[in-house]
Structure formats: C-alpha cells, structure tokens
Amino acid sequence: MTWNDEVDPSALALRLNDARRERRAVAPLTSGLPGLAVPDAYTVQEEGIRLRQADGERVVGLKMGLTSEAKRRQMNLDSPVYGVLTDRMRVAAGGVIALGQAIHPKIEPEIAFRTSRELRGQVTRDEVLDACASVFVAMEILDSRYRDFKYFSLPDVVADNASSSLFVLGEVEHPPRAMDLTKLEMRMSVNGALAQSARSDAISGDPVVSVIQLCELLARRGQVLPAGSIVLAGAATVAHMLQPGDRVRLDVEGLGSVEVSAA
Ligand code: OOG
C-alpha cells in the first residue's frame, strides 16, 4: 500500500504508543486500514521503537511470537512474527508486575538465548549454537494494545510490537550445547497449581529454529541479529491471563526456574 499523510507509519506508531502509555486499548489498525500489509506493519513497529528510544529506552533484544501451534491456533494466525525488547521492559527475577501499568496482561512460558556474535540472514542450527553464549528460562508478559486483546491479522500484531509488554529472565545461564533443547519439560504454575505445560519442541519444533526464523525475518528488513542480543524464542503454550496476587513460576528441565508476581 502507499502511505499518505492520513495514514503514515509514524502516525500509526504514535497511536499505538499513546495507547500503551495511557493504558487505553484501541481498535485494530486493519479495521480502518484493511490494506495494511506485513511489511508496512514492520515499518510501524520500527517507528514505535524509535519513539521509545527517543524516550530513553535501549534495545536489548528481540522476541519471536506465534512459534507454537498452540499459540497460532489460539490467535488464529499462521506464521511467526517478531518484536523488539527494550531495557525498560525487563522485570527482575522474583520481581513484581504492577497490573495497573498494563491493559490486559497475560504471561507465557519461554526459553531465551543470549548471542555473543552477530547472526545474519540464512543461518544453520550449528551457527546459531556457536553464536549463542547461553540459554535460559524466561517468561514474557504480553499486553495487546488492541481492545479485548482482539486483533484479526498478522499486520495488527506486528505493528503492535508482537503484543510484547515485559519479560523476566532466569538468573542462571547455561551453555546451549549442554543439553538437547528439544526435549525439556516446561511447567508453568500459578499460585502453586500447574497452569500450562509443554515440551520445548512445542517452540518451532526446536527453540533454536526460532532463532533461525528470526534471522530470516530480520534479513527481509535488511537487518541482522546483533551480538549481545537477548532472544525470546516464543511461547511453548497458550498464555495465562494475570490476576492481582498471582505468583507465577516456570520450571524448565535442565534450565532451572524463574518466578514473578502480579500486584
Ligand atoms: C501475539 C504474540 C505471541 C508468542 O510467544 O507466541 C507471542 C499474541 O499472542 O498476542 O509472543
């Protein structure tokens, strides 16, 4: 589609950024702009990140979304997307999430990587493992800026930074070749009761494949995965809607655990 003064990417990014800052849900962009395509939506996402950088936030990594069949079915969407993580989105392990700062937050069980070398374009599984210094347990807090957490197409979720809100990382980092990353049992409990569980191959068949896909998606935008990035590989299960008082814990076989509370 062609941008014009009425629907330029910065105006759309500003609309979503204001919604986030004011905790006010808005209509999906495609309800007014049915022609919005995925590449346009990434332009909106990039503009949105520029607004956050202008506000002093620093990019620390990327997140993959819709990498598991469970999530794709739940959201009725068919392909993986990425979003950007900033320093201000990080919650300390064991920390507290203030639900009043969000619109309708949900939490998901994840596996994360930290890169020590740049990755670009088409990469192999071995190249990803060589470029990742560590792998660890993580949870992502999603918070769509769209009304009722409802959007209807990939461009909507891409423009909204793949619904990302906050993330929490486990404190113990492991070498990525120390275990079979496709066979780890993941159990997320809320207030001591099991809420979601899956094996790590629910994430793209292999969480490393999420990183390969991320590099491909970035290459389409002429971008690379920088050294020193945190990468959230995508949720293994559907998300849990957070309620005040929730204490959420994720245990991943071989990787340890991480906890966060909601107030
Ligand atoms: C989209 C983001 C999904 C994941 O890990 O699958 C996601 C959404 O559910 O709104 O981050």
Task: Lay out the secondary structure.
Layout lengths: L8 H14 L6 H4 L5 H17 L4 E7 L3 H7 L5 E6 L3 E2 L4 E2 L8 E10 L9 H7 E11 L11 H6 L4 E6 L15 E6 L2 E7 L7 H14 L9 E3 L7 E2 L5 E6 L3 E7 L1
Parallel strand pairs: 1-10, 3-7, 4-13
Antiparallel strand pairs: 1-2, 5-6, 5-10, 5-11, 6-7, 8-9, 8-12, 12-13
Helix pairs in contact: 1-3
The site of 2-oxoadipic acid has 14 residues, from helix 4 and strand 6.
- What is the CATH first-level class name? Alpha Beta
Query: What is the overall number of helices?
Result: 7
CATH hierarchy: architecture? Alpha-Beta Complex
The outline comes out as globular
Spell the H/E element sequence. Answer: HHHEHEEEEHEHEEEHEEEE
Number of domains: 1
CATH superfamily: Fumarylacetoacetase-like, C-terminal domain
| CA gyration radius, whole angstroms | 17 Å
Pfam families: FAA_hydrolase
Protein name: 4-oxalocrotonate decarboxylase
Organism: Myxococcus stipitatus (strain DSM 14675 / JCM 12634 / Mx s8)
GO molecular function, one term: 2-oxopent-4-enoate hydratase activity
Q: Can you walk through the features of this model?
A:
The protein has a single domain, classed as Fumarylacetoacetase-like, C-terminal domain (Fumarylacetoacetate hydrolase, domain 2), CATH 3.90.850.10. The strands form 2 sheets. Strands 1, 2, 3, 5, 6, 7, 10 and 11 form an 8-stranded mixed β-sheet that branches. Helix content is 26%, strand content 29%. With 263 residues, it is an alpha+beta fold. It starts with 8 loop residues before the first helix and ends with a strand. The structure holds 2-oxoadipic acid. 2-oxoadipic acid binds next to helix 4 and strand 6.
